[in-house]
Write a structure and sequence with these properties.
This protein is of the alpha/beta class. Helices cover 23% and strands 33% of the residues. Strand 7 (179-190) and strand 8 (195-205) form a beta hairpin.
């Protein structure tokens, strides 16, 4: 079982709609398209696929995609979107409801996408490293992994250590008038290990005025660029590009993001060395 017992995206059905209101950027999709280039009909796995912000446009490009996510509400919203896609694109997508950390990923992929800051949803470095190991096992020799996260080097940033509650995700108003108001409060941290725990509260006000409140604890480990680089090299990848933003600019020490494009080449884990 994952360290975090509660999936924040599945505590309330309206969260998927609020997520789509907030996560509207497409620059990472454009970067992935540039990296794929002229290759057509790739077999792609996207763990943490959410509501399909990345998955759907790639399916419309003609690639075959498998989306994997633990949040049933996010997948249900994605299924509703799929119903409005051109028939051929809809047939290109398979969805699996499962805990990404616990389930064995299927094999035979040309590309694994670990995008949208997904590592920041995980509680421990061991879980993040496990995703890279799983990607290595899932990919065909010569296949690639795309990893896109903010990064934090050294100790936990002081901004993450401050006490007191502040407005957090998910907050917003749904099309039917349902309102979500969330707060996030730091309750514990280990600065050298870059671990932090939050108390998160979400108040849901329904159109009829009735209210529901959900509260849970979530731990995070803000991943570092150096960690991801070390894990990729340990599991048989050669890093072809490290970008500092989704526009494709080179990574520097001042970059807010660390975006990796790495190719599986084979190593002691038994990958095919003939590629």
């Amino acid at each position: 079982m994952s360290y975090n017992q509660t999936n924040m995206y599945d505590i309330e059905p309206h969260i998927a709609e609020i997520y789509d209101q907030n996560e509207t950027y497409t620059d990472d999709v454009q970067l992935i398209r540039r990296l794929i280039g002229a290759r057509k009909g790739l077999h792609i796995l996207e763990p943490f696929c959410g509501t399909g912000r990345i998955l759907i446009p790639l399916a419309c490009d003609g690639h075959t995609l498998v989306g994997l996510d633990q949040a049933g509400g996010m997948l249900e919203r994605l299924r509703r979107k799929m119903a409005h896609l051109p028939q051929e694109a809809g047939r290109q997508i398979t969805l699996i409801w499962a805990d990404v950390i616990q389930v064995e990923w299927s094999k035979g992929y040309d590309l694994v996408i670990l995008g949208g800051n997904c590592f920041y949803e995980l509680a421990m470095p061991e879980e993040q490293e496990g995703c890279i190991h799983s990607a290595a096992l899932a990919l065909n020799p010569g296949g690639c992994v795309y990893i896109d996260n903010n990064h934090m080097e050294g100790d936990l940033d002081p901004a993450w250590q401050r006490p007191g509650a502040g407005r957090g995700f998910p907050s917003g108003t749904c099309a039917n008038g349902t309102r979500l108001e969330s707060t996030t409060e730091t309750i514990w941290f280990d600065a050298p290990r870059r671990l932090v725990k939050f108390r998160r509260s979400t108040k849901v006000t329904l159109p009829d005025g009735s209210r529901v409140e959900k509260e849970y604890i979530q731990q995070k480990h803000p991943v570092s660029m150096a960690e991801v680089q070390t894990w990729l090299e340990a599991y048989g990848f050669v890093i072809e590009q490290i970008y500092g933003d989704r526009a494709g600019n080179p990574y520097t020490d001042s970059s807010s993001r660390a975006i990796f494009w790495a190719r599986k080449i084979g190593d002691r884990y038994g990958f095919d060395r003939t590629y």
